[in-house]
Specification:
The protein is mostly helical. It folds into six domains: 62 residues, no CATH class; 59 residues, no CATH class; 73 residues, no CATH class; 56 residues, no CATH class; 73 residues, no CATH class; 101 residues, 3-Layer(aba) Sandwich (Endonuclease, Chain A), CATH 3.40.960. The protein is built from 29 helices and seven strands. It has a four-stranded mixed beta sheet with strand order 4-5-6-7. A three-stranded antiparallel beta sheet has the order 1-2-3. Helix 8 crosses helix 17.
Length: 516
């Protein structure tokens, strides 16, 4: 009988393959401990083959860790970055900007901030509205993405859960418990001192304690009893596995059973806040995960099936309360324009005629855009409330009520020091971009405006014949601008047009069209 290979296997795992999950290590020992293969090099080759390691894989990828038995890359394995992100204050302050300037530049790169929209030519009020809409949209997407994940995945990604720290420390239970304890002690005196220094840290901690005690003392006995009851219940269920938790919830009287749930939410005509007024994602996010578990719903797909099977009037694709295009859903159901208008006119998020005119009459978007562009930029629900059904209706409304001049839609306007112009494809941001655009249109050349670079949030000025083009007349005048263009050229191989002589544009276009 051959001798045990255990020591040699340990050397291979620890020194050559590395980072193998404990359960996967047990498999390897069972497979090779009494194998007739005894050489360390030969064992290394066979174990690699057993794991499916047939090429070098970077340890910062999920593939590296999954091959070694993990569900995914542990949270503790992070690629070290050089310098600060362009979305941080430090990045711009290191370049010589003041704190206020850095804050503005940083925000101008984020659609959830009003500065982003101000830079695109919208006025203050419109910018605030668009930023808010974008943030709310992101929040809904984020919440839905979290709910789509399994119970196990959610616990693995939450720093409040033991599983996260166990994965973070790659199976070390003691380190996981200690890290969880430290994370839960966010408001401890130790944390406050670590963050603010000894003197200020103590003051911050003391202020929190006083405020916390004052809040508790202001509550009635019934409220305190309810808080303690909820805390005890949450602590009790937080460590349960999925099957155990579902079983426990089913025995609890805290949640509605199917019949009660359907009865409560069954009539959207009588209950304006009912779930039947909401799209499926909003429905799923409006009810607690525990309540859904009691109803046998564990995913967005389960939710849609539950709602359509139990509510005859429910349409998962329509939100009668918040969606911007309920108009089309009503049209599909056979309602005529005036009936739809009477339904939508009381929706609180839609503006009446006076409110709409007041909000938009002086905005750049409504003054310099084409009628079609304006028509397409507003939801059909909103147009319907204003009595507008067709493009011609929209044109008449704008001319009659908002001093709209269709000839202005092709004229330029100033934003800061720049000259801009709206066109059907988007917004041109300088006289040079306008000139380049006119050359392309004049020659009948197909192009895209402000196309995103591959796998990036950055956009080019023009995309022509498979080439990303940047119109950069200020390249040699502004250092930050030059750095930005150089970065785009290095990352994406774009063409950077630096000339200030518009007569050169034809030759430049020819070079793009005739490139190899």
């Amino acid at each position: 009988m051959s001798n045990s290979n255990r020591d040699k296997i340990k050397k291979v795992i620890d020194n050559k393959i590395k980072n193998v999950h404990p359960d996967k290590q047990k498999e390897i020992y069972e497979e090779f401990e009494w194998s007739s293969i005894t050489g360390e090099v030969a064992l290394f080759k066979e174990i690699k083959k057993y794991l499916g390691i047939n090429k070098p894989v970077n340890k910062y990828t999920d593939e590296y860790w999954i091959i070694r038995g993990w569900d995914k890359k542990p949270a503790s394995i992070k690629l070290k970055k050089n310098g600060h992100s362009p979305f941080s204050l430090e990045f711009w302050m290191e370049k010589g900007y003041s704190k206020d300037e850095a804050e503005y530049i940083r925000n101008s790169k984020r659609p959830i901030r009003k500065e982003y929209w101000l830079e695109k030519g919208y006025d203050e009020e419109e910018s605030i509205r668009l930023a808010s809409e974008h943030k709310n949209s992101n929040d809904r997407k984020g919440t839905n993405a979290v709910k789509k994940r399994s119970y196990k995945d959610r616990r693995l990604s939450s720093k409040r859960c033991y599983e996260y720290w166990l994965d973070y420390h790659m199976g070390d239970e003691e380190k996981a418990k200690e890290s969880l304890r430290k994370h839960q002690a966010n408001s401890s005196l130790e944390k406050c001192i670590e963050k603010h220094g000894e003197e200020k840290g103590y003051e911050v901690w003391k202020e929190r304690q006083v405020k916390w005690q004052a809040t508790l003392k202001s509550k009635s006995k019934e409220e305190l009893d309810d808080i303690n009851k909820r805390k005890a219940w949450t602590n009790h269920v937080s460590d349960m596995g999925k099957d155990e938790l579902v079983d426990y919830l089913m025995k609890s009287n805290r949640f509605m059973r199917k019949e009660e749930f359907v009865k409560r939410h069954g009539s959207w005509k009588e209950n304006k806040s009912n779930l039947l007024l909401k799209d499926i994602e909003t429905v799923y996010n409006s009810v607690s995960t525990w309540q859904w578990m009691v109803l046998g719903v564990f995913s967005l797909e389960d939710c849609e099936k539950f709602m359509t099977e139990n509510f005859d009037n429910y349409d998962p694709n329509v939100s009668l309360q918040t969606s911007g295009n309920n108009y089309y859903s009503y049209k599909r159901k056979g309602l005529v324009f005036n009936d739809i208008m009477s339904i939508l006119k009381d929706r609180p998020h839609l503006l009446n005629k006076e409110e709409f005119i007041e909000r938009h009459v002086n905005t750049t978007r409504f003054k310099y855009n084409s009628v079609k562009k304006i028509y397409d930029s507003v939801s059909m629900d909103q147009w319907c409330v204003l009595g507008i059904e067709t493009l011609d209706d929209c044109r008449e409304f704008l001319i009659t009520n908002m001093s709209y001049d269709e000839e202005m839609s092709s004229s330029t306007f100033k934003v800061g020091y720049g000259t801009c112009m709206f066109v059907d494809e988007g917004l041109l941001r300088s006289t040079y971009e306008i000139a380049f655009y006119e050359k392309l249109v004049e020659r009948g050349i197909d192009f895209d405006l402000e196309k995103y670079y591959p796998n990036s949030s950055m956009r080019c000025d023009f995309y022509v014949n498979g080439v990303y083009v940047e119109i950069a007349p200020m390249y040699y005048n502004i250092e930050e601008y030059r750095i930005k263009m150089d970065k785009k050229e290095k990352l994406f191989g774009c063409y950077v047009m630096t000339t200030t002589d518009i007569s050169d544009y034809d030759d430049f276009i020819d070079s793009i069209l005739t490139r190899d």
